[in-house]
Specification:
Strand content: 15-25%
Structural class: alpha/beta
Number of helices: 14
CATH class of the largest domain: Alpha Beta
Largest sheet: 7 strands, parallel
Order of helices and strands: EHEHEHEHEHEHEEHEHEHEHEHEHHH
Radius of gyration: 21 Å
Distance between the termini: 19 Å
Strand order of the largest sheet: 3-2-1-4-5-6-7
Shape: globular
């Protein structure tokens, strides 16, 4: 199969796309890429570029400040260069794994039998900006096949966007091997020594439940004076939570973009537990990252999070928006230290089913069958 992957996002889900692209090559596909020249994990793509048929780089915007300038430049000259570069090229499948603002324009210039879009959030998160919803609808409209990461959202996509059930494919998040260097040293920071260390990782957003996490953690660290720490690491507006967290002991706030090379150190904190106190969710890349490092997970029982964790066989779960429910699960990790080893064994066993070559092969087979059925009906 001749595949073109369109990735103009510079940050979100790029390691997952990298793993999936390599998995497709290993499964026998011929893979080309349209890639942002500013993609954060560029070194991964560059080191593996010999695996791909072609990589076409685009000078995308990297901030809100240069968005209009770079977009105008692309419309005036970049679009014509791209059109010329792909004038006589045909692809079986164009895959858009993570939507960005130029993708509708770019995909209209590509000759492909199928346009496959990965729907990450079929239900808009709390506080999702209107511009994000508009972008999603534009790409849904152009796509003729879609991929979701949790089965439970197949009927929602069907009902909300009118996609026939046979054009909706389930493909789980593949594992993220690229985050592991194999050279990580044990974190001997005394801040973490002799404690259970809770970690919130990811973009700071309204739906992520940081107020709930603060209340639950206060029960452990203040009311009961237990040996715990809490690290919050991620970019976004932390101002609504700043005063609340300033009054909590043993907290560490890293409010900035976390580089890929820093992720291994965070998830390898001793006695670390990843907490996802989300108010609503579809799925989460944080879960796949935690699985890769064997880091136990406490998550809200909302959206597709439980499905991502082997239908609840892995992880501990709390009621969304319920600080008492969350605090009970945090305390459980202190009272039952054997839970760490139990969770690591479950994760290790499950992780092999998420190998990129397995995920990619299954996805290509689904798309190939669908392509064949389309051709048969012509």
């Amino acid at each position: 199969m001749n595949v073109l992957i369109l990735l103009t996002q510079t940050v979100s889900c790029n390691v997952e796309t990298f793993e999936l692209a390599k998995g497709m090559v290993e499964s026998g596909a011929e893979v080309s890429l349209i890639l942002s020249a500013h993609v954060e994990n560029l070194k991964h793509w560059e080191c593996s570029k010999h695996h791909f048929k072609e990589i076409y780089y685009i000078d995308t915007h990297i901030s809100k400040k240069d968005f209009f300038q770079k977009t105008l430049k692309f419309i005036c000259s970049g679009r014509n260069k791209l059109k010329h570069a792909f004038k006589n090229k045909h692809y079986d499948v164009l895959i858009n794994p993570m939507g960005n603002y130029w993708d509708d324009m770019i995909s209209s210039l590509i000759d492909a039998d199928e346009f496959v879009y990965f729907i990450h959030d079929p239900i808009a998160h709390s506080g999702m900006p209107r511009r994000g919803k508009i972008l999603e609808h534009m790409l849904y409209k152009r796509a003729n096949q879609v991929v979701v990461h949790t089965k439970s959202f197949i009927p929602i996509v069907q009902q909300t966007y009118g996609f026939p059930i046979e054009k909706i494919h389930y493909s789980p998040h593949c594992r993220l091997k690229a985050y592991k260097s194999g050279n990580i040293q044990i974190n001997r920071d005394p801040f973490y020594s002799g404690k259970i260390n809770f970690l919130f990782f990811g973009l700071i957003r309204e739906y992520k439940g940081l107020h709930i996490l603060a209340k639950a953690y206060r029960t452990l660290a203040v009311d009961r004076n237990l040996p715990v720490t809490l690290t919050v690491a991620g970019s976004g507006d932390f101002n609504p939570y700043r005063n609340e967290y300033a009054s909590l002991p043993n907290t560490r706030i890293i409010n900035r973009r976390i580089k890929d090379e820093e992720i291994e150190e965070l998830f390898s904190i001793p006695q670390c537990v990843v907490v996802l106190p989300y108010l609503d969710a579809t799925q989460s890349g944080v879960i796949v990252t935690a699985l890769e490092f064997g880091t136990p997970i406490i998550a809200s029982d909302t959206g597709g999070l439980k499905e991502q964790l082997q239908d609840g066989e892995i992880g501990l779960f709390c009621e969304p928006g319920d600080a008492d429910s969350l605090s009970k699960q945090l305390i459980h990790m202190l009272e039952y230290p054997e839970e760490f080893e139990k969770q690591r064994k479950l994760m290790s066993k499950y992780l092999h089913t998420l190998d990129p070559d397995i995920i990619a092969k299954d996805l290509l087979n689904m798309l190939d069958r669908k392509k064949g059925s389309l051709n048969d009906s012509k």
